[in-house]
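Sequence design from tokenized structure. All designs in this work follow the same two-part layout: the structure record, then the generated sequence. An example of the structure record is given first.
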């Protein structure tokens, strides 16, 4: 699945990329350009813009309107609709900044890009071969896991309501 996200969904774009999904995002693309790009790439257009949603669906494009505002609720909506697994797997994860698949990196390869303490406390690193950004599962992963767990709970709760 390839997604194209409108300018309102920058944070969600980063989440989907971490989850391993190909998501194109340009906050400066107008509705006409988004619709053309969606058609050209056969992508699924993600939006919170009602008018864009109506225009894209009227043109027969695969479009998903996100009702929710909070990231964890948006993730729950997408997981439910598209069967997205709300678990980060670094073997398929993409760079949240530029959308390129990340690759494992040895400590000596990234030593000059992270703090000395980071090298001391962590052993697994990943680097984006495109933009050079380095990633590791540091203290911030507690928040990441909590957000994903909350999204799973919301999805399960919503599924129970529908039955």
């Amino acid at each position: 699945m390839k997604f194209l996200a409108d300018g309102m969904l920058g944070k969600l774009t980063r989440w989907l990329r971490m989850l391993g999904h190909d998501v194109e995002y340009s906050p400066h693309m107008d509705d006409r350009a988004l619709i053309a790009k969606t058609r050209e790439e056969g992508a699924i257009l993600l939006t919170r813009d009602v008018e864009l949603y109506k225009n894209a669906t009227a043109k027969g494009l695969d479009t998903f309107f996100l009702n929710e505002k909070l990231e964890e609720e948006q993730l729950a909506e997408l997981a439910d609709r598209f069967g997205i697994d709300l678990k980060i797997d670094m073997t398929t994860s993409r760079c949240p900044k530029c959308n390129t698949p990340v690759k494992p990196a040895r400590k000596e390869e990234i030593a000059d890009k992270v703090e000395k303490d980071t090298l001391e406390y962590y052993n697994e690193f990943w680097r984006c071969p495109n933009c050079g950004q380095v990633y590791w599962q540091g203290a911030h992963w507690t928040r990441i896991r909590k957000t994903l767990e909350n999204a799973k709970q919301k999805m399960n709760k919503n599924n129970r309501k529908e039955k």
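DSSP finds seven helices and seven strands in the chain. We note this feature because it recurs in several other targets discussed in the main text.
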